[in-house]
Amino acid sequence: MTAIAFAQPDAAILARRDAIVAGLAALVPSDVLITNPDECRAYETDAFTAYRRMPMAVLLPRSTQEVAAIMAFCQEQGVNVVARGAGTSLAGGAIPQEDAVVIGVSRLNRVLEFDRPNRTLKVEAGITNLAVSAAVAPDGFFYAPDPSSQLACTIAGNIAMNSGGAHCLKYGVTTNNVLGATVVLADGSIVELGGDAMDMPGLDLLGLIVGSEGQLGIVTEAILRVLPLAEGARPVLFGFDTSEDAGACVAAIIGAGIVPVAMEFMDKPAIEICEAFAKAGYPLDVGAMLIIEVEGSDDEIDFTLQKIVEIANGHGVKVIKQSRSATETAQIWKGRKSAFGATGRIADYLCMDGTIPTSQLPYVLKRMSEIVAGYGLRVANVFHAGDGNLHPLILFNANDPEELAKAEMAGADILTLCVEVGGCLTGEHGVGIEKRDLMPKQFTREELDQQMRVRAVFDPQWRLNPSKVFPLENRWMPQ
Amino acid sequence: MTAIAFAQPDAAILARRDAIVAGLAALVPSDVLITNPDECRAYETDAFTAYRRMPMAVLLPRSTQEVAAIMAFCQEQGVNVVARGAGTSLAGGAIPQEDAVVIGVSRLNRVLEFDRPNRTLKVEAGITNLAVSAAVAPDGFFYAPDPSSQLACTIAGNIAMNSGGAHCLKYGVTTNNVLGATVVLADGSIVELGGDAMDMPGLDLLGLIVGSEGQLGIVTEAILRVLPLAEGARPVLFGFDTSEDAGACVAAIIGAGIVPVAMEFMDKPAIEICEAFAKAGYPLDVGAMLIIEVEGSDDEIDFTLQKIVEIANGHGVKVIKQSRSATETAQIWKGRKSAFGATGRIADYLCMDGTIPTSQLPYVLKRMSEIVAGYGLRVANVFHAGDGNLHPLILFNANDPEELAKAEMAGADILTLCVEVGGCLTGEHGVGIEKRDLMPKQFTREELDQQMRVRAVFDPQWRLNPSKVFPLENRWMPQ
């Protein structure tokens, strides 16, 4: 997309390209290094965008030691490095650069150790999110953060973006579920951060790594907290006449101190798109819908649902439809989780990812419609309402540069609105390139400077995922 | 205590003492600056130790702006700063230094805003922990982390040490319950970190501040997550013949995926000491005791307790005693929470604070007894068993330098044991001075260097609580 601004490629690096590739070839087994353009093409973009850029080379190491050797070499040669999980990023975080090598972690995908009594699972960080839950499911456990892309996305990517998901309302996002990490720093040194205890002495560098978008190092192993599966769980669909009614109902449920395991919002366009794709049994005669899932024993579920139904009745609910079987439950979630894919079938879209205090939901939903309509575009809303994590999908035609520009302006207006009502620019997709130039709306110069100084401790040459997160013009360079 | 090593006081600062004090006097209202030795004496130590040292001056500012002005002045003058909450620190974190000024936050104690729908409370950070829960109790909420010192300790101190408490097993420690903070940096600039949304873009500097022991800045305001009070709660006492039996029972309960709201361990010496003080109805004919608290509706409590009783029966439980009233519940907790005070009435003690994987509890309890007995001393154990957070109290006579040395050696051996079994040096008391020289047992040189480089970003002159956390001899100084 035209709106994506990279820093200018470093001509000095590009001029040494052949020597760099030869050096890498001498360093790793031949199947670890990919330079063939046909094969590199699989890495030239991410899930977010039509924008494409070929990296200098792609490396797919098989061990922490290989990652360390590559990182040490890149430090010595001054080569930029873009880390990549599965490339499902929605904000441009994994987009390569022509003067950078991409280090993909997809081959680091083994389960290392399940410590059942301590309820922790040690994995290589390139394992997919879903494979983690699958590894512990036979013992009755699961890993809580569940991005919609969980079939493909990696734990390394989840850590880089502090990923969430529909079920994070109750169990927290990635930072609440990662206990330790093995990280290869910019100079190739390997550090262990955190551990499987509840606290560690000294500074919480693990917390700093989570959400750092590949700019502080590459996570190669992780110790994850896994949780006992609930006895049962049941989603219920609630249909409302308007988005505002549904938003007010969410705010009232949260305000009443009820914490369902998930509380997902879909407006009319999103319902129609997902129902057409997934045949999930969504009500088509309503203006907005909530999927509220409650878990526990049957009695607990009944008890909590009764309280939720009372609140919903007070907010003009029109349709209430409970799942009656595991199949129906799977259908309901399939509809929700396929929202992005299903939308992509009917239009190009820009998916924003702001977060707001839940009490602001009714107001923000109304303002978002007005903003997008003001640009002559349509929006479909499908998001994690319980924790106020918005995902407006702004629909447009990517072949029309003017529509793209309008969509991006509408997106920026929406994120600015999120900040204005006391929320923030991101929920779980990260800043990447998409929100980079909006960061000054969230932070003062002093606050950004402080973040950049900390970043520079880990990457003094500013070589790790260099064009992302911090605005290009005022990024801080160490003396 | 003789074993506490400060860096040598900076003679250049001490020589300018009068000028520095005069400068501070010109900066703040007269009642904010304390230089009178009689008044300063209240600040010359902390809860941990008999060690005393008078600060150059004590400042008790009333606003973030006053803190900022003092910090800017200290930066300009190169003066060290030790931040202080209520001085309940158990690891020497708040011990003053003669070449430093102490900035106490006790007057920053107002509740600023209760956002009920979003379940957040904004406070000035010098407010006491208990006052936070008191502020939201009328609305049916509470603040989860509950250090035993909660009547006195401040939120600022809780943030500095990442404090826990008996009820953190279910609800997490401070870092899981703080959403935002206003921090005055070393140069006097004021930054807002985090916010009341679930995630923020950019680096997680808030997570870095939590547990940083006053070395990155001074927290003056905080946004706290408050939780709905449970419908009910009931503690039960379980008595066992041996500590190993009780430890194995804890590991089995956690291993079964049950998460009580609290699971406290006391061995025979601790039971006797606490019962004599609090008349809590503890069984005196057992070798070890667990206090397990379960919360929810009466039915839920009964259901979960039944599962716990089954597991306890499988581990040779001898006594099971349920609380039958709110008064009994209060007595049971009073006994546990007064453990440190009650122990202090009968002997001097050194309280260690290591954390281990719960599966290692039986082994570690046995080894701790052997270690302490090997030095000819006694130990009382009272700790948060559910999350493996040990608090062995090593009893000794402080007037006997040899006993003190033995107690300290036993303490160091115990913490080393914690690291060896996969745990760590701290649970919730911080590193301070006490564990500073043990840090190389937990971290490699590279890992410590990385922490110190990050610390230096916030405090390049190494002036904030300078003698704490990092070993004096190899602390990293920026060029």
TrEMBL record, chains A, B:
Q: Which organism is it from?
A: Pelagibacterium lentulum
PROSITE patterns xrefs: FAD_PCMH
Q: Does the keyword Repressor apply?
A: no
The protein in question is named FAD-binding protein
Q: Which residues form the FAD-binding PCMH-type domain?
A: 51-229
Q: Which Gene3D superfamilies match?
A: 3.30.465.10, 3.30.70.2740, Vanillyl-alcohol Oxidase, Chain A, domain 4
Q: Which GO terms describe its molecular function?
A: FAD binding; oxidoreductase activity
Q: Which cofactor does it need?
A: FAD
InterPro entries linked: FAD-bd_oxidored_4_C (IPR004113), FAD-bd_PCMH (IPR016166), FAD-bd_PCMH-like_sf (IPR036318), FAD-bd_PCMH_sub2 (IPR016169), FAD-linked_Oxase-like_C (IPR016164), FAD-linked_OxidoTrans_Type4 (IPR051914), Oxid_FAD_bind_N (IPR006094), Vanillyl_alc_oxidase_C-sub2 (IPR016171)
Q: Which domain of life is it from?
A: Bacteria
> What Pfam family is a match, any one?
FAD_binding_4
- Enumerate the UniProt keywords alphabetically: FAD, Flavoprotein, Oxidoreductase
Gene behind the chain: glcD
